[in-house]
Amino acid sequence: MMYKNSIILLIILAFTQSCVSKKKILYFQDAENYNVENIVYENSKIQPNDILSIIVTTPIPEASIPYNLPTLGGGTFSIEALKLQGYLVSEDDTIDFPVLGEISSKGMTTDSLQNDITKRLEEGGHLKDATVNVRLLNAKVTILGEVMRPGTFSFTEQTITLPQALGYSGDLTIVGKRNDILLIREENGIRSINHIDLTTTDWINSSLYYIKPNDVIVVNPNNTKVKSAGFIGNAGIVLTILSLLLTSVVLITN
Q: Domain range for residue 156?
């Protein structure tokens, strides 16, 4: 009888350990306490190895032709084709621009580079009433760990948020550690590792809310998953073994 009670107790404990508290699953649990603030959109700085699309237009189209790269592939406008004919930012933060020559992009955003080229064209007497459009073509974010679809995802939007990025990967799995997401970021030659608690709203008004190109998001498994990933494997196998033990004890004691 004592053996039966011990096995039953072990089974109950196994079920208890395999359960995950809703406090570890629900997002933004303090949403009702969130203070509404004005949204500040932050344009990311241009980094070495970025690929830029820079298009110059003028009221007289023929005038801007020398200031644009030739179109490859018979006018194909897929993202991959555009990358091949874009401007690759060198390791010393420069691009080689038609007619104007080498231009530094160090510390600039796409908007500020856009304004800089426009100013050079007009003040240098190259073009009048020129419009310059600069876009980043190879923006991407890598998401690893306990998500439905780990991988590297490209995006063309000027800004995306961390929740949007996690949406690209199909959201966290049920065993993803929501209260300690790792965000690895490289900016201005500095690498940082940031910890984010998705169960709160504390971080929404910080610089971590918006994804920057080349960010890496890591979702570690929660304690329940870690405990079940050892020699035995998972809670289901534990319960199967305990059930067999219970059956054996019952047969022996009877």
A: 22-42+139-221
